[in-house]
Predict the 3D structure of the following.
Amino acid sequence: LKGRADRIDASASALRILDYKTGSPPTIRSVETLYQTQLALLAAIAHAGGFGPKVRGTTASLDYLQLSGGLEPGKERWALGKDPQAGKLEDHLKAAFDDFTALAAGWLLGEQPFRAKQHMVYGRRFSDFDHLARVAEWLGRR
């Protein structure tokens, strides 16, 4: 697993991983239900030392920083809500990495097929690029 973090703040005791957004950040619900796992997977990379020895360790916070200009040029939001329950972050980090591991094993090492549209209910129903992914063919609508 490899990735690039927008920003990681490292203290003596823990890491804080931030993602800059020019639009709206993902909803708390989409993060909690593992539809948005970017920050949690970056935390897994940091925990394993993937960003170097100075940013290796336990993650204490996952944050979005919305940079859209205007009257409020920067707005910060914790990915899992502003009043997290004890253990919620640790459970989320473990669940996100377990989910990634299962998906990678199924797609890359197993028999899980690659799908043109993984979540038809949650994603955009139609895209300008569907013809390139041959979505109609994969959905049996040829």
User: Anything to note?
Assistant: Strands lie at 7-10, 15-21, 59-67, 74-78.
